[in-house]
Amino acid sequence: METHRIRPEHNLVPVNNKFLKKIFRIIYYSDTPGGKIFDIILLILIVISTMVIMLETVPAIDILYHRVFFYTEAAITTIFTIEYLLRILSVKNKEDYILSPLGLLDVLSLVPFYLGMVYPDLHYFMIFRMLRLLRIFRIFNLADYMNDGHYIVSALKESSRKIYVFLLFMIIFITIIGAAMHVVEGGSEGFTSIPQSIYWAVVTITTVGYGDATPSTAIGKFLSILVMLAGYSIIAVPTGIVTARFREQARSCKACPRCQTDNDLDAVYCKKCGEKFVS
Amino acid sequence: METHRIRPEHNLVPVNNKFLKKIFRIIYYSDTPGGKIFDIILLILIVISTMVIMLETVPAIDILYHRVFFYTEAAITTIFTIEYLLRILSVKNKEDYILSPLGLLDVLSLVPFYLGMVYPDLHYFMIFRMLRLLRIFRIFNLADYMNDGHYIVSALKESSRKIYVFLLFMIIFITIIGAAMHVVEGGSEGFTSIPQSIYWAVVTITTVGYGDATPSTAIGKFLSILVMLAGYSIIAVPTGIVTARFREQARSCKACPRCQTDNDLDAVYCKKCGEKFVS
Amino acid sequence: METHRIRPEHNLVPVNNKFLKKIFRIIYYSDTPGGKIFDIILLILIVISTMVIMLETVPAIDILYHRVFFYTEAAITTIFTIEYLLRILSVKNKEDYILSPLGLLDVLSLVPFYLGMVYPDLHYFMIFRMLRLLRIFRIFNLADYMNDGHYIVSALKESSRKIYVFLLFMIIFITIIGAAMHVVEGGSEGFTSIPQSIYWAVVTITTVGYGDATPSTAIGKFLSILVMLAGYSIIAVPTGIVTARFREQARSCKACPRCQTDNDLDAVYCKKCGEKFVS
Amino acid sequence: METHRIRPEHNLVPVNNKFLKKIFRIIYYSDTPGGKIFDIILLILIVISTMVIMLETVPAIDILYHRVFFYTEAAITTIFTIEYLLRILSVKNKEDYILSPLGLLDVLSLVPFYLGMVYPDLHYFMIFRMLRLLRIFRIFNLADYMNDGHYIVSALKESSRKIYVFLLFMIIFITIIGAAMHVVEGGSEGFTSIPQSIYWAVVTITTVGYGDATPSTAIGKFLSILVMLAGYSIIAVPTGIVTARFREQARSCKACPRCQTDNDLDAVYCKKCGEKFVS
């Protein structure tokens, strides 16, 4: 069930044509030699493509290799387009694929190139092509890796309510501090408005500290000290929340054979249904 | 008992008038459709009001919408004033409301606007209006959220003694380091006085590192390295204190009445002796 | 035993004189009304004295109150001198007091003032007077607070071996990175020598990031990214070490009535001597 | 078995010559007085050598002591060369030593000096000599320390899969943020290309915050705030992963042979059933 959410292709079925069935297996699965090679080539193309998009923005490099870059992009996009068409052709329940998260990602990685030829600014959206790297989880039959990703996400999700409460307090605190600093440091460069001061407050409380805005008055410096110490102290709070959640997840690791509830390793009776464990 | 501290309105009783009783239910509770709508409108008004206060301080925007901003503020403040009067009118034990934390917050969100018309500087205090967002906990019947907020606060409070000890050591350490750096880096810009050097020490030890004051002598740089490593290391201490507290709170939650074993809060049967819990 | 180390005054005995016995009780203990008042006055004097030392270094303030500051310092030092003499006079085993940590601290807070009159530079050492604040633990009968301080220190001490290993790896890593950056960024301002580059490496790895030295070459920036990610990742290591220690300390909290070994809360038999616990 | 991996010299055997056998014992072991003295001298030479390499790069110092530095380096390298030859001579299975990690390290600490005389730039590689400090673990019979190093490494290794997943997400996130900031802040100094913006993203997300590149547009600042808050929040994730691993390692250490309860490593009796452990 959970795997379905992560591997949406699992509910996809091939069309009833021998050749396309083979294609389907190669493209959607990685349990055949052909499928593995296909996936690895895809992976390499994504990495190359991302590199090219990045290097194109460096003027000194772009001047030398502009043409190489363009043709590489064109070639990779063509391959991706063919791949996309094959994916659609070889699947029976086409809508299920097209509207699946990975399916939408596949289009998203194509469109910007074609649009970029008309509106150059949209060209940058090609970077979203990188999200296809998430397919990496499917290659190398990494079911375990997927569980780990799931593990991290679920640990964050289950403690999300505590994190919301924490964020609300943070937002209120940061806004009030921002307003206070705007009043105190009104004249200084980085505190000309409340949003500007809020930017400073975030820079400070997250301990990033660019230094593009720093307090110049004595009161401002004193307030800053309090904000920094606050930031330094509350860094513990999200850590504590997430860590506690990790701990809990790691702890309850024995499933009751009757009701499937997670029990502590040292439990003798299931805490939910009272079933006695056979050790 | 604890809920009383968080929801002070719970001990409030409506006046003996049919219409005001209805108002009371809408304003103070969110369990009726009217009460929910009222709360959501309040929430939206608070957010709009905060936005306006913030944007007013951005000259480029204020110039264009100064009038819109002023009238929005005036309108919202008027609504809040009417709301406040209705709150007072509809409650029987008026003093209990007026002197409750949320009651005082309600006045605090009104007064700065009126005072700001006489003393423009006090206008900024309107930002405290934002604290009314804490009412968010009451809307969407978020009893659970409240517990989480309570959970975080109590985790901080119960380990507060350890945090005091930690802070005392920090203050002594920072002051002595500040004095030392003032002596060593006397001539440099950011170390002209001990308070200035203390500001630098806090910026450094919290790993914020603005860079508005940096050591220039070799000895100063060496001392800085020690301070940075100290800051980097002791970041673990508050984390450890708070995390340990979270862990304890999460762990020892329900003792089995028969065998005294600590069980998870959601346990139905004792994990050791199989005793069924009476809930 | 442990308390002796923290409260060295406990092994001190008063001299055999009725008046000095009273003085002894007031100075060394805080369980009488007189002792409490004495301690609080001491506390206030230390804070005032520290403030004065700090403010003296701010030229704008010193110019106005130079005289006030000097006389305050002189007065407080005189009081501390009298206190010190009374401490020596009223105690029988004088050496035990004079050579105790707190005893040495008491002299250290006096000497710099007198030396400062001859060698003005030594005047700054008066800041060590602040260490007398550690006496704060004795006031308000804060036996618990002392335990907490002890708790933090012992948690750090018991995991110190792991921290040494960690530090050795850090030092090797930072030095090699420093040398590499010196080679790569040789020309840039902040990397003129290896020690300079090591300073940069510490600033970076501890996530302080002043910005007084930043890489300018592409390779330098790439190396920096690796260093930053390393610093960001290994911040978890000391946290993990200390947190694990806290956890262990918090966990073993039931002493065996026979052998005094700390046992887990859920233990039924003592893990050392096998004694069955009566619950 | 595990010690073999850390102490590769254990599988080395001396040659069949009385004098070289003695040399072998002194060089490879530290359980004799001679061996201990040898190890300590080695340690001191490594530290001196590292210091010299570092100070040579400081022009002000190098000008004064250039000759002293060169002769010190030459002398120490000569000693290391003789030591290396003796190591080879005294060991029977010479290949096992030469190709062992520590053996390769020993050559690596010699070669740069000789190469540096021909190609001065390679001289800097002498800093790798510092890695010989890892031999410190062998001196002072620090078997325990080795375990601690092993403990940290294994904690990192066993949670490495989670860390890989985490890093993949980070890389994707940082690249997309970098591209977005390049589009938004195109004109600004620190965002001239995507790699440049990625450098900024890493500086920001790791909370280093040099300030050599800072957003100047309103949208850029807003995006930065999100990135900073993300960095501040996810700092908890690696901490959580590693901490959870530490905890697990520390906790489930010895299962009772009778009742399978997890007991502490130092338990003599099972805490649940009282079974005595055979050690």
UniProtKB/TrEMBL annotation, chains A, B, C, D:
Record's protein name: Voltage-gated potassium channel
Domain Ion transport: 36-250
Keyword field contains Transmembrane: yes
Membrane-related topology note: Multi-pass membrane protein
Keyword Transmembrane helix: yes
Domain of life assignment: Bacteria
Principal place of residence: membrane
Species, as recorded: Cruoricaptor ignavus
Record keywords, A-Z: Ion channel, Ion transport, Membrane, Potassium, Potassium channel, Potassium transport, Transmembrane, Transmembrane helix, Transport, Voltage-gated channel
Transmembrane parts of this sequence: 37-56, 68-86, 98-116, 122-143, 163-184, 222-244
InterPro entries cross-referenced by the UniProt entry: Ion_trans_dom (IPR005821), VG_K_chnl (IPR028325), Volt_channel_dom_sf (IPR027359)
GO MF, any single term: voltage-gated potassium channel activity
BP GO terms, sorted: action potential
Name of one Pfam family that matches: Ion_trans
Cellular localization per UniProt: Membrane
Assigned GO CC terms: voltage-gated potassium channel complex
